[in-house]
């Protein structure tokens, strides 16, 4: 079946099958958070992005093969409610942005900086530090050698605009980070946000000036 990226809490996962990577998207919790299970197709190693909520659903999605790592995109509580239980069940190493790790109540094994590489099996993800939604938010870029890039944006980018900010300077910082580190990728780039549906950079790029002008 064709991947749509549309999932609902309590509903089935949606699976995006790439040549080297399998991406399983599931919605969990009262804030309709997305969690993404990445599986390297060469060696079947797995990585989870955001153990947001509902550990039972996440562990069922992970299955018997377990996970090597969990990446938390940022420190907001709705993105790590199931982290402790998932780590306890799987022994996974934890990753988070250096400037957000102290706000996550599960110890972070790997502090992530801009440009760092996070591996899942033979697949490499590149971290992009984006300041504004939180001080240490990270997006993860998979530059598919067989196609277009894929970006996991946490709460920094959604269809229709950037993530929530509370101060004008935070908004300006987030917009600048997105323009300099994310929107430099091609229009075909597919992005996976922390809540709701996916989109492409090409669909959103025409609205960058609009977002700047409105200030949110």
The share of residues in helices is: 10-25%
The dominant shape is: globular
What composes the largest sheet? Answer: 7 strands, mixed
Mean pLDDT: 98
Number of E strands:
15
In short:
The chain is an alpha/beta fold and 216 residues long. 19% of the residues lie in helices and 33% in strands. The longest helix has 14 residues, at 168-181.
How is this fold's topology laid out?
Blueprint: E1 14-17, E2 21-28, E3 33-40, E4 46-49, H1 55-62, E5 69-72, H2 83-90, E6 93-97, E7 110-112, E8 117-120, E9 123-130, E10 137-143, E11 149-154, E12 157-158, E13 161-162, H3 168-181, E14 190-193, E15 199-200, H4 201-204, H5 208-214
Parallel strand pairs: 4-5, 5-6, 6-7, 11-14
Antiparallel strand pairs: 1-2, 2-3, 3-4, 8-9, 9-10, 10-11, 12-13, 14-15
Task: Explain what this protein looks like in three dimensions.
- The chain has 216 residues and is of the alpha/beta class.
- It contains 5 helices and 15 strands.
- The chain has helices at residues 55-62, 83-90, 168-181, 201-204, 208-214, and strands at residues 14-17, 21-28, 33-40, 46-49, 69-72, 93-97, 110-112, 117-120, 123-130, 137-143, 149-154, 157-158, 161-162, 190-193, 199-200.
- The strands form 3 sheets. A 7-stranded mixed beta sheet has the order 1-2-3-4-5-6-7, covered by helices on one side. A 6-stranded mixed beta sheet has the order 8-9-10-11-14-15. Strands 12-13 form a two-stranded antiparallel ribbon.
- The chain is globular and about 50 Å long.
- The termini are far apart.
- The relative contact order is 0.14.
- The model has no long low-confidence stretch (mean pLDDT 98).
């Amino acid at each position: 079946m064709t991947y749509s990226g549309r999932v609902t809490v309590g509903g089935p996962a949606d699976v995006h099958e790439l040549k080297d990577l399998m991406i399983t998207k599931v919605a969990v919790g009262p804030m309709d958070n997305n969690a993404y299970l990445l599986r390297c197709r060469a060696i079947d190693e797995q990585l989870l992005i955001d153990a947001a909520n509902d550990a039972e659903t996440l562990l069922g999605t992970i299955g018997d093969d377990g996970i090597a790592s969990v990446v938390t995109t940022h420190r907001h509580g709705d993105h790590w409610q199931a982290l402790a239980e998932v780590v306890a069940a799987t022994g996974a190493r934890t990753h988070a942005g250096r400037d957000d790790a102290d706000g996550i109540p599960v110890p972070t094994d790997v502090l992530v900086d801009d440009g760092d590489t996070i591996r899942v099996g033979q697949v490499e993800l590149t971290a992009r530090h984006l300041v504004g939604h939180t001080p240490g938010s990270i997006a993860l870029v998979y530059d598919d050698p067989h196609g277009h890039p894929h970006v996991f944006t946490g709460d920094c980018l959604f269809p229709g605009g950037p993530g929530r900010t509370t101060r004008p300077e935070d908004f300006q910082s987030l917009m600048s980070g997105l323009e300099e580190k994310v929107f430099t990728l091609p229009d075909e780039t597919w992005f996976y946000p922390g809540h709701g549906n996916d989109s492409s950079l090409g669909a959103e790029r025409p609205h960058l000036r609009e977002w700047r002008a409105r200030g949110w």
